[in-house]
Design a protein that fits this description.
There is one protein chain. With 247 residues, the chain is mainly α. The protein has one domain. It contains 13 helices and no strands. Helix 11 runs antiparallel to helix 12 and helix 12 packs antiparallel against helix 13. The longest helix is centred in the middle third of the chain and has 28 residues. The two termini are 25 Å apart.
């Protein structure tokens, strides 16, 4: 997650976002995968159609969060809404996986979800800040988008934030109207694997064989050692070596 945050921050610098733009986008949108996709598709001129396109991109990339938040509904449904819905803003893949692993072991303390998600959010903000500062040093001197006036930028950011939060809160809200049958519970318990595949597959399609190899190595390392950080470093090393070799 830290390495991903560094990449998002560096991309924002390369695209000409100011430090404040980058910080606020991550604070209010807080969805790294969709932010990367949107920044790569950032329009030169803004219009109602362009804003609708940004919303559609965010909703499509973050659609998996409907399932993720739905799986939290049986666990968090007893809490007051003023705690649940603000807390869903910091729902992420790593925080969700930590929470579901805790639940699978019989845990019931909702503080695990909120605590893990808050720590990850703080780590993310630090990573995107470091990535931005590093990326600004190597970014193309031409600053694309600097001429965008602030109201236009904040309109785009608002659209992205609303679309992303709709995915986060939508699944939780919908599950309030669905009876929790044994079959549905089994489906929810099977979600982690499918969500991981949905999150990883777009990168494999985009980056090709190198990404597939790096992810395969990372998976093998985590299965062998049970150490997430070591797996991430191994995957990054394989990708760097492959690219250095010209593949």
């Amino acid at each position: 997650m830290i390495a991903f945050g560094l990449a998002v921050g560096a991309t924002a610098a390369r695209k000409g976002f100011s430090f404040l733009d980058n910080f606020l986008m991550n604070l209010f949108v807080y969805a790294g995968m969709s932010q990367l996709v949107v920044m790569e598709s950032w329009p030169e001129r803004f219009s109602a159609l362009a804003l609708a396109g940004l919303a559609l991109l965010c909703a499509t990339v973050n659609a998996r969060m409907l399932l993720m938040s739905a799986s939290l509904q049986p666990w968090l449904r007893g809490l007051p809404y003023w705690q649940i819905y603000p807390g869903l803003h910091i729902l992420t893949d790593p925080g969700w996986l930590i929470s579901m692993s805790y639940r699978a072991k019989g845990g019931s303390d909702a503080g695990v979800y909120f605590g893990a998600s808050a720590v990850l959010a703080l780590a993310w903000m630090g990573a995107i800040t470091a990535g931005y500062l590093a990326g600004a040093l190597i970014a193309d001197p031409r600053r694309y988008g600097i001429d965008l006036v602030m109201p236009i930028f904040f309109s785009a950011m608002l659209v992205m934030a609303v679309a992303t939060y709709a995915m986060r809160a939508g699944g939780f809200w919908l599950m309030a109207f669905v009876p929790l049958t044994p079959r549905l519970r089994r489906m929810i318990e099977a979600l982690p694997g499918s969500v991981v595949v949905a999150a990883v597959l777009p990168f494999i399609v985009r980056e090709g064989p190198i990404a597939a190899l790096a992810i395969a190595v990372a998976g093998a390392v985590v299965l062998a050692t049970r150490k997430d950080l070591l797996a991430v470093l191994a995957g990054m090393a394989v990708a760097a070596a492959a690219r250095a070799a010209g593949f």
